[in-house]
């Protein structure tokens, strides 16, 4: 606005002040050309700054306590992504409310590419649909960047569970509705909704849900025998299953997972259509500049295509998220949001 007005004022002075001698045409052309050359010279500088992104450390928020799948995968990504970007990627844990505390912070952050969220279905698709007063709209407030990983939901038994297997769990729940309890990383998380889907498909079983502030806290109580069952992402529990400290009763997947081939699917165990998985993706605040989105997306896709990160994920029974572009990921996440809507409505879950 000021530059435009300044140009108008100069033009008016040149038109009205006839007492001042005008510069020769050749010199005016020379000066005009110099201004053009100066502007042209400034363009590479501006482009260089855009191409130089990032110029300082990047924050990657995780909506859970350290030790869970989301945190583990985020830390594995951050180390490798920092090497790709030439700047540190710093993990910041902000647990609470199904990761919505962290998502809200990212949604309100300056959209400059330096504050990112390592999100899963709980934060993107589920919590905004179960919260009475959601603090963000994921379809409008977030800019998807890249898919990172995917792993199924699993139902896990601790030493306090006496049912043996999935069929034993179903028998106990039918014999004593509401007597069994299970823990999850929080109300409105994809793992809780995955368990609710399992209970629906198993014939409308009634178990008591005990929400925690993160998967690590649930696992502590499971191992101590204070709670008989928990539901979580496969990747979080696979090492404890291998060591024998807990038992995965089933995975909510179409087929068994290679990292623990002894664990049956819920479908095999007589629970049809019980399929729920946990993806992890990176998102930024809406209105983040396209060049920053593309730089981050390309760098993350190089990491997830690497043998190093794929082996890291496979050790936890997870798969790399593929090579979706930011636009393709946007379509995927929006579709997943809609996929969970009927499940949420069927449970009647509402968080005040």
UniProtKB/TrEMBL annotation:
Transmembrane segments: none
InterPro entries referenced in this protein's UniProt entry, alphabetically: BUG (IPR005064), Bug_dom1 (IPR042100)
Similarity comment text for this entry: Belongs to the UPF0065 (bug) family.
PANTHER family: BLR1237 PROTEIN, TRICARBOXYLATE-BINDING PROTEIN
Protein name from the UniProt record: ABC transporter substrate-binding protein
Source organism (scientific name): Teichococcus rhizosphaerae
């Amino acid at each position: 606005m000021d530059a435009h007005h300044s140009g108008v004022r100069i033009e008016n002075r040149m038109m009205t002040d006839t007492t001042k001698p005008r510069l020769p045409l050749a010199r005016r052309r020379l000066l005009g050309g110099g201004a053009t050359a100066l502007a042209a010279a400034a363009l590479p500088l501006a482009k260089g700054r855009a191409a130089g992104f990032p110029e300082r450390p990047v924050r990657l928020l995780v909506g859970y306590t350290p030790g869970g799948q989301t945190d583990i995968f985020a830390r594995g990504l951050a180390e490798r992504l920092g090497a790709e970007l030439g700047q540190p990627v710093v993990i910041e844990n902000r647990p609470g409310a199904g990761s919505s505390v962290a998502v809200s912070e990212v949604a309100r952050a300056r959209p400059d590419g330096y504050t990112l969220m390592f999100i899963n279905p709980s934060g993107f698709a589920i919590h905004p649909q179960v919260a009475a007063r959601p603090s963000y709209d994921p379809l409008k407030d977030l800019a998807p960047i890249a898919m990172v990983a995917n792993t199924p939901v699993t139902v896990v038994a601790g030493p306090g569970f006496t049912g043996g297997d999935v069929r034993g769990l179903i028998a106990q729940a039918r014999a004593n509705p509401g007597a069994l309890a299970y823990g999850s990383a929080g109300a409105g998380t994809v793992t809780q909704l995955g368990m609710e889907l399992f209970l629906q498909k198993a014939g409308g079983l009634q178990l008591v849900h005990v929400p925690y502030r993160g998967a690590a806290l649930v696992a502590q109580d499971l191992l101590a025998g204070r709670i008989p069952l928990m539901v979580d992402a496969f990747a979080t529990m696979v090492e404890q299953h291998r060591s024998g400290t807990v038992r995965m009763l089933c995975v909510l997947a179409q087929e068994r997972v290679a990292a623990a081939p002894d664990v049956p699917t819920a479908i095999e165990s007589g629970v049809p259509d019980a399929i729920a998985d946990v993806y992890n993706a990176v998102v930024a605040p809406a209105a983040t500049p396209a060049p920053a989105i593309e730089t981050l997306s390309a760098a993350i896709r190089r990491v997830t295509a690497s043998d190093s990160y794929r082996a890291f994920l496979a050790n936890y029974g997870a798969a790399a998220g593929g090579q979706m572009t930011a636009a393709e990921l946007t379509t995927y996440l929006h579709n997943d949001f809609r996929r969970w809507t009927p499940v949420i409505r069927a449970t009647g879950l509402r968080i005040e």
